[in-house]
Amino acid sequence: MFRAQKKRALERTNFGKEVIREQDYPDRLNMYLIPPLAEITLDQFEEWALDRLRVLSELETCLFRNRNMKATEQTVKPLLEKYLPLSPNSVSGRVNKGSQLDSERKKDHYSHFILRLAFCRTEELRRRFVKAETILFRMRYTSADIAEQHALLTRYNFGWTLVPEDEKRSLQDFLNSSSSESTTHTQSSNESYFKVPFERVPELIESRKVFIKGGVAYVPASQQLSLILTEFSEKLERALEITARALPRLDEDDRLLPILGHLSKGFVAPEYIPDSSTTAPGHGVVRATQIDSLVPHFPVCMRTIHTALRRDSHLRYFGRQQYGLFLKGIGLSVEEALVFWRTSFSKCTDEKFNKEYRYNIRHNYGLEGNRRNYKPRSCAQILTDAAPGANEYHGCPYRHFSEDNLVAAIQGLGVSDQGVLRGVREDVRNKQYHVACTRVFEATHKAAGVSSPVGVGVGMESVTHPNLYFDRSKQFARQVEAIETESGK
């Protein structure tokens, strides 16, 4: 599937002996029945999979937050446009339109099959993948035009049986009674119906939108979306089970295994872009003396580390790394960082500080060693890092704290609403740590007009990065200040 540096795909036993060739993508909608055949690079393999996972992760978050389809589409649409665009054939006015469409559809095709390899490994991963992929397919189908929908039905033979006119007339009264209230009897009599086994349309049966006779459901053409989604999810479930059985026998390149393992570990946050409006223009605008006053805008993970630092006048390596890069992200310059850490490590002599800590601080700013300018760590990175041990305070409290300690920490922020606390407990039990963090953000920012389920910004995004939490908290604080100033308070 990818272009190896040491071993070409044609030489690998698990691909068979057929000629590897590029595939055509004439249609936008894809049921993903045929695996990709051509080679891609290892970089494309990882990048495309991560981009798709970003979209699926946000879809899963919307599910856990009980958002309806309209709100889900509004939330996910910007991510789709950025990471997984899929333009229709009707798009005009583009340079190299055909090439652009093929490129988008190729990425969509490959990324789906790459994630199959990552998410086929356990029943829980398969369930999550099928649910998120089905919602994504539904969004794309409902946004497609009639021609695209017809192309899907023409391309894939679903094996539905069209109800003959004479049979439809004999059952018309029953069909009319099961049609939706917005459908007139005239429309119902003119509509085509399909016969399918009743167990294939549980959603329509639950909402009483189909007539059932002898174990057969009579589905109107207007409700064919439910049929298509059932076909999509069932085919994907079977394909994942087959992949899971075949995976141990696949002669995969060793370099793929770490990538696939990483992809299956929780969600992946979109790349964090600092909000320039949270601080004044320029780099390094936060001073060491301001940190304590900014703590109310910190997420629980950073408050925990800060509290331990102030109490013990010391932090171990992983805590210094997580907190130091976070402070760098909110605008603390390297000079101010050296001041902050020196004053915080008050029990340490100047000689020991310069010998043991100064180099590491400058290294994080790209001024020592390999000169790499490190970014603040995202929630995904924090969740997959080593868990904190004794006398260590890094990590994610929603994952690493006991339930009682977590509730106590949240109550320490002023959150007393039992509904919020119950929701956090449930999120943590479901391993939806970013949902729990977003829920706490909402509860602590009600004064700024934040209420569930709006997330932490205009785009209703979930907390996926500690610095995103900080940025949005500062943003809402400015809004409250502006309102109070205008009202003369």
UniProtKB/TrEMBL annotation:
InterPro entries: DNA_primase_C, DNA_primase_lsu_euk, DNA_primase_lsu_euk/arc
Domain DNA primase large subunit C-terminal intervals: 297-470
Assigned keywords, A-Z: 4Fe-4S, DNA replication, DNA-binding, Iron, Iron-sulfur, Metal-binding, Primosome
Keyword flag Magnesium: no
Top-rank lineage group of the source organism: Eukaryota
Gene3D superfamilies registered for this protein in UniProt: 1.20.930.80
One Gene Ontology term, aspect cellular component: alpha DNA polymerase:primase complex
Binding site for [4Fe-4S] cluster: C301, C379, C396, C437
GO terms (BP aspect): DNA replication initiation; DNA replication, synthesis of primer; double-strand break repair
Matches recorded under Pfam families: DNA_primase_lrg, DNA_primase_lrg_N
The keyword NADP appears for this protein: no
A GO MF term: DNA-directed RNA polymerase activity
Cofactor: [4Fe-4S] cluster
Family the UniProt entry places it in: Belongs to the eukaryotic-type primase large subunit family.
Function: DNA primase is the polymerase that synthesizes small RNA primers for the Okazaki fragments made during discontinuous DNA replication.
Protein name, per record: DNA primase large subunit
Organism of provenance: Lipomyces starkeyi NRRL Y-11557
